[in-house]
Amino acid sequence: MTAGTGTETGILQTIARIREEVCALHAELTRYGLVVWTAGNVSARVPGTDLMVIKPSGVSYQELTPEQMIVTDLHGTPVRGTNVGGGGTVDWGNPPLSPSSDTAAHAYVYRHMPEVGGVVHTHSTYATAWAARGEAIPCVLTMMGDEFGGSIPVGPFALIGDDSIGHGIVETLKNSSSPAVLMQNHGPFTIGKDARSAVKAAVMCEEVARTVHISRQLGEPLPIDQGHIDSLYARYQNVYGQ
Ligand SMILES: [Zn+2]
């Protein structure tokens, strides 16, 4: 890279910032007990570009560093650098690691949901237990009304290897207010305006999955009227959120 243009500095700074953020957010997955071993992943769209940043495959959580976060295009292919204005190029130095095996699903979401800036996937225990039964989590808590605006839906069974997981996530979430989907027999995927919001949705998804499961052991949880759910959601998203 030749020293200099504002464009080069800008994209390098942006990518460094997103790498720091994505790396730090992985620590939240372990802090909240949402992942074991190397399972789970966080990604973020790089604002103003057709790029995303995601965790490498097979690196333990304690060893993750910002420099290991991999920059890919929106088809999940690692990209070393880009052309910038005036014929210059910039290289942000991808590590010699493969991106997460779930990268194609994240990339599909970014391609088809332009409003999404972050995606998270875990196999968190309670949410995945609902996914194993293929059962949506009913909206029986005011915090579910606040965060999800209704039940947390189930997406189709899909195998890794093509776009079927990504397609299942998008088809389920585009008709739902929920930022979380339980992919059947697999586990939760969550989205947000940025990676931090998607991590929050993953934490809240596990929390309500656990609480509603426990409530069920004692009887049938009471439903909340849709009108009340709608006003909880509107208040929390539009008023409380600012
Ligand atoms: Zn998975």
Q: Helix/strand-derived class?
A: alpha+beta
Mean pLDDT: 94
Order of adjacent strands in the largest pleated sheet: 3-2-1-6-9-8-7
Number of domains: 1
Radius of gyration: 19 Å
Q: How many helices does DSSP assign?
A: 7
Query: Uncertain spans, ≥5 residues at pLDDT below 50?
Result: none
Question: How much helix is in the residues?
Answer: 40-55%
Number of DSSP E strands: 9
Secondary-structure element order, as H and E?
Answer: HEEEEEHEHHEHEEHH
Beta-strand fraction estimate: 5-15%
State the shape: globular
Distance between the termini: 41 Å
Ligands (ions, cofactors included): zinc ion
- Second-tier CATH architecture: 3-Layer(aba) Sandwich
What would you say about this model in short?
The strands form two sheets. This protein has a seven-stranded mixed sheet with strand order 3-2-1-6-9-8-7, sandwiched between helices. The protein has a two-stranded antiparallel sheet with strand order 4-5. The chain is 41% helix and 15% strand. It has a single domain, classed as L-fuculose-1-phosphate Aldolase, CATH 3.40.225.
